[in-house]
Amino acid sequence: MAFEIETPRLLLRSWRDEDLDAYARMCADPEVMRYLPSTLTREQSEQQIAKFVCHWEKRGFGLWAVEIRETGTFAGFVGLQYHGDWPEGEHKTEVGWRLDRSYWGQGLATEGALASLQYGFDHLGLERIISITLPENMASRRVMEKSGLSLRGEAFWRGFDVIWYDISRREWETYNRS
Ligand SMILES: CC(C)(COP(=O)(O)OP(=O)(O)OC[C@H]1O[C@@H](n2cnc3c(N)ncnc32)[C@H](O)[C@@H]1OP(=O)(O)O)[C@@H](O)C(=O)NCCC(=O)NCCS
Fold first, then answer.
1. Which residues have any ligand 1 atom within 6 Å of their CB?
2. Please, which residues have CB within 8 angstroms of residue 111's CB and are 6 or more apart in sequence?
């Protein structure tokens, strides 16, 4: 069972069976999946949700389903994921996000990212949180910057040339106070 978080506009909550329709629709959208390996079939989306739920059960944290508080509609995911195969150092927990296109451009990913970082540092006691993307994914990079992360370098990961950002606990405390 995921710990739930409310932000001004979002509810970060556990995954529900009813999320599959909206999640599958979002992951079949080529624009949403433009910087990800490929669009997903409904079956692949279902498998992905099962993996997210397994991650929560195994590690006690993970990617939340994002719900718009005002309407109760599913909007995507945001949260933390542990990548055991991340090659650049010992800090392997990533903050990540994917929202349905109709919710882009309103600061919602950043709102969810900030709540995820707060949870990672305050509740999980992490020392450093990373974030990974393709260099050309400017919206995602901007979310990283607006959440206080800094560019650290390039890496080759899961068959792609990626760039990665991170933020330490100390940097977060300073950023969060400002
Ligand atoms: C990345 C994503 C989650 C951002 O969601 P969002 O709610 O629109 O993000 P925010 O509104 O919090 O911030 C987006 C920022 O990127 C900027 N941006 C968007 N598209 C951009 C582009 N093509 N070039 C430069 N900046 C861009 C926005 O202007 C905004 O910055 P600003 O507040 O300074 O104006 C959303 O675009 C998405 O789901 N993309 C597809 C999935 C994906 O790529 N996930 C990440 C994989 S690493």
1. 32, 35, 97-99, 104-110, 133, 137-140, 142-143
2. 7, 8, 9, 10
